[in-house]
Amino acid sequence: MLGVVVASLWFAAIAFGGVDLWARVVLQWLMVLGLVFFAVRLAVARRPKLVLPPAFWAATLFMAYAVGRYWYADVEYVARQELIRVGICYLVFAMVTTSLSGQRPVKVLVYAMIFLATLEAAYGIYQWSAKPGTVLGFPQHAQYGARGSGTLFNPNHLAGLVGLALPMALAVAMFSKEPHWMRILVAYAAGVMALGIFATLSRGGIVGAAVALVVLGGITVWAIRKRWVVVAGLLLLVLVGVFAVKMPDSLRQRFSELTPYVGKDAKETREMIWDAAVGVWKQDPWFGAGPDHFDVRFREHRNLWLQTRPRRAHNDYLQLLADWGVAGAIGVVLFVGALAWGLWRTWPHLVRDGTTLNPSPNSSRLAFVVGAGCGLAAVAAQSVVEFGFFIPAYSLGTAVALAIVAGSFRYSRSTEGASSGLVWRVLGGSLAVLAGTVLVRSAGTGSAEAYWLAEANRAGQGSGQGAEWLRKAIEAEPSNPETHYVLGENLRMRSFEGVDGHEALALESLDHFTAASRLFPYDPYTWARMAMCLDWLGRHDEAGEMMSKALGLDPDNKSIVTLMGWHLLQVGRLVEARVFLDRAQNRIPHARDPLSGILLERVDALLASPLRGLRERSAR
Fold first, then answer.
1. Do 214 and 104 have their domain in common?
2. What is the C-alpha to C-alpha distance for residues 178 and 114, in angstroms, rounded to an integer?
């Protein structure tokens, strides 16, 4: 199991954060392997012990709620993918807490996270200084080209991952019982990580790391009584002051960009996203919109100035409310409370004398727990402005840190671990088999879906061969609305080229858009594309109904407003078409849309044509 957890951590990071479908499938197969090891351990070991701290039961309660909320979600595919992501984090937490909470396994996990973060930070420093514009040879997003992102593509997520591991490295270096050469090596690694966080130019990541260091310094001075840390802290403040004076221009500019307005009346982008998240939450305050459903319901609450699709709320706390509601938030609060209570009971037993908060010698297990806890403080701070929990590399690292803190409950004198008798063996084994069965089915389907989607992507968006691969992907996973939409768009574009059989292509495209609208009824683009197909087929009345549906779902979307103008142009309602196209081009504050500009010029030319009146009288 230990190897599985470490492999999951490293793979998720190297696989660009683990966000792509193929990477999530690999993580599912790794979890299946971990469950096999867990079940074999229960069956074979003579007296296996399971550590079941209070936080484990709180996490299990939230997982049960997540399963129940999934069954009532509006978009099943989206909710299922999110449930699996949450489930993988829960399984990692459960494996480490119940079976890998001893000092040796925890030591392996801590060092695995430290050296992973060090390598990622070093790569981020290289990207910041050399500006290659790539991530492992793949093109980097243009907006991140001057910032270090490691293999995670997003610099903010790299800052979060490194900020989680940095306090662990410092705690090991300051007061663990590791050999001196190892502590020196880890101290150098901490320096690389600190520079790596600055290389990301992530304001939230830098603030989160600073919070973690303040917490670590406070614990070290007042609880562990290492007074020399005060001197080290003062020296650090001097260094920070010097760095602030000589701060690189790129970092200085990032901290000055606190209000990137797109207009004098606009809010900062994150604030607009947060307002939308609050709106989504208010639709169902108690149970939320559903797992990962902020993006599903976001369009109804879009600010006029926000024309992008954020996908996440950029605030994990608001995302929690929007997706899971007050019930989910209560579950998280209970988990944090159980974690704190368990740590409070365990703390005296983490130190040598067991009676005061003043350990006489250094303690590795204390260093591991304190380092993990301070890393979680960085996560909590950065979560105010980020969505790191949706990145598997970040969320799995957080799950491991939580498990290290929760698993320290085994050091309490009241429990050395619960011996798993027949009841625990049967119950644990049954749950492992159940979870493994679900993951095998999901991973099997996802493997086929990921393969065919990759083939379609290589074939090209508008190719006939790509359409064949997309049909294969739908056969493997018919519940994915996005695949139906992409196939429908492939067929629609080919039909609009006027090739032989274009009418049949349009009809098949309409079928897939209809399927996508049934699976994801809140997506305005699906309804708009249906309208375009219907206009192409000459069924203008039906097309008008579809466009009205799309506009009702997202009335402030520049692209949807433009397509409404396009539809009205097809049916000759030029004055109305001009109203919509002018709104899209000049009234909605965002970058000008080339399509709306072209269509507006065409409508103006038709309205100015001397033959317009003759055509209108002929039509009557």
1. yes
2. 14
Are residue 219 and residue 363 in the same domain, yes or no? yes
Rounded Cα distance, 331 and 324, in Å: 10
Dihedral over Cα of 577, 580, 585, 591: its sign: negative
pLDDT at residue number 460 = 82
Averaged pLDDT in 10-residue chunks for the chain of 620 residues = 94 94 96 92 76 91 96 95 96 92 91 96 93 88 85 93 94 87 91 91 90 85 59 54 53 50 54 92 95 93 84 93 96 95 85 45 80 95 90 95 91 56 75 91 95 92 88 95 95 88 92 96 95 94 94 91 93 90 82 80 82 50
Does 364 lie in the same domain as 217? yes
Q: How far apart are CA 165 and CA 481, in angstroms?
A: 38
Q: What is the DSSP string of 139-195?
A: EPPGGGTTS--TTSS-HHHHHHHHHHHHHHHHHHHHH--S-HHHHHHHHHHHHHHHH
Number of domains in the chain: 3
Q: Tell me, yes or no, if the pTM score tops 0.70.
A: yes
* Cα distance between residue 232 and residue 227, in whole Å: 9
Residues 489 and 561 in one domain: no
Residue 511 inside a domain? The answer is: yes
Indicate the residue among 479, 503, 537 that finishes a domain.
Answer: 537
Beta-carbon contacts of 197 under 8 Å, excluding residues fewer than 6 positions away, are 121, 159, 162, 163, 166, 205, 206, 209
pLDDT digits (tens, 9 = 90+) for 354-393: 334 444 445 788 889 999 999 999 999 999 998 888 999 9
Q: What are 362's two structure tokens?
A: 């250094």
Same domain assignment for residues 116 and 212: yes
What are the tokens at 284?
A: 């169902």
* Same domain for 566 and 471: no
Residue 547: partners with Cβ closer than 8 Å, 6 or more residues away: 527, 528, 531, 563, 564, 567
Which domain covers residue 495, as residue numbers? 464-537
Q: Look at residues 351, 384, 417 and tell me which one is the last residue of a structural domain.
A: 384
Strand spans (E) along 274-432: 418-419
Strands 418-419, 49-50: pairing kind = antiparallel
Helix (H) / strand (E) element for 135: namely strand 134-135
Q: How far apart are CA 90 and CA 98, in angstroms?
A: 12
